[in-house]
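Field: sequence (string)
Field: structure_tokens (string)

Example rows 1 and 2, in order.
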Amino acid sequence: MFKENEQQAEGFSVLLGEALDDLAFNDAGLIPVIAQQHDTGEVLMFAWMNREAIEETLRTGRVCYYSRSRGTLWRKGESSGQVQTLRELRADCDGDVLLARVDQTGPACHTGRRDCFYWKLDGDRATIDKTPLIDPADLYK
């Protein structure tokens, strides 16, 4: 569906179910998703979604991921209170990556930092360049 329709004009649409059917889920039924702050463009985190997480996110407006370590759905902020409200969900041209444009409450990272990309790789060093906003011990009481 994505490839066949890439030359369609702006405004062309298909039913949501057809688009979800054509997403390139991996063998585990997951698709990568990047979370981006909707108003600043800040890249917050990378995670995975399965179809159920996508459908719940679109239905509720609260971002839901699939936790590979827990083997279950993970509603962002369910234990920390640092929720992501969906502003827009997009698929790339190949249907193999999603972009969740969100409104993030507080830190997005489990380390208490605003985003998960706090390691800067440069030259011969890997350096932490961001300070936690909240102590993780306080974040996950």
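Row 2 begins here:
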Amino acid sequence: MNKNRKYALIIILVTNAILISFLESLIPIPVPIPGVKLGLGNIITMIGIAFLGFKDVLFIVIVRSFVVAILTRGIMMLVFSLTGGLLSALVMWLLYKKFSKLFSIKGISIAGAIVHSTAQIVVASIILGQVVVMFYLPILLISSIITGLITGSIAELTINEVRKKEVFKNVNQF
């Protein structure tokens, strides 16, 4: 595949990740727990993990985090978004590339959601200088399992369809 086509596919993924994340921020979740969201933008991260190299996945996560933070939650939220996004992408990448025989896409997505929530709570604890924030973690971990399963189910269906259509055929992954 030529580089222009690869870059076009990456830009399409980045744009979709931004759009999905932005639209998700406009939809109220009927759960009375602050900070809980589906994380639908991670569907795009999982597609990147399945078909692209790690640098490309990092690019998608970083650009999405910057744009969505600026458009929705403000620049102060960027540190939370980047930390959670980058660490979860790293964990999902490792699980997919090294342990995909042990973990399904749904399981990898759940692991990513758990890492994302944990990273954000740790960052909040550091910024606030308060360990008490950690008491919120069990609630977020339970929601991470549920939202990771939902996101992973959608990602699994999407990856299978993209694979059938050979959209990323001959893409250099490294």
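free_text_note (row 2): The chain is about 75% helix and 0% strand.
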